[in-house]
Fold this protein.
Amino acid sequence: MSIVTYNNRSIANISAIPGAARSLTHIKTLTASSSSTLTFVDGSSDVVFDSTYPIYKFQFISIHPSNDAVGFKFNLSSDGGSSYNVAKTTTMVQSYHGESDSYVGGGGIAYGSSHDLAQSTASQELTAANQGNGSDEAGSGELLIFNPSSTTFVKHFLSNMASHYISDYGEQDMCGGYANTTSAIDAVKFEFSAGTIESGTIKLYGIKDS
């Protein structure tokens, strides 16, 4: 494999980046400020969420809730954000480790059966419903949604989140599943199970075909 080098001293001066470096395209950044929800709607406020890209990636950076013991969650729309009620079937795996070198419930990893969905239109939790709201507590991670504009197949998604559990535990939540619709998905909403998104940033990227 050849090594790509850039002759420009400043990244700002680079006019073209070859290969895989071009595959990830930034679309939109939203920053929370005591926000009840953050939404990305195709065609609104410069958001692209259609057949332009086969994969879309959301990155969550220091998502901090106003309330204690809440879950960060998302839902999907097929009508431009008029309603967020797409049926979903999902599964979640959770792992924990405490600052005191202990584990929640005596186990370090578990199937999060209370956080999965079975043909439900409810919002899907990306962090279990115990994220803390201390001044230094937040959650970060990512969500991938595959081929949301398809009118043939269901829409798969995968998420991986790290967050601060209320009892000073580091928690990792991994969720996967599908939106059980052949209608195109054109909007995504993020919120906490109670209260607001006090602060934090969500970035949306499109991933091009190889």
Summary: The mean pLDDT is 90.
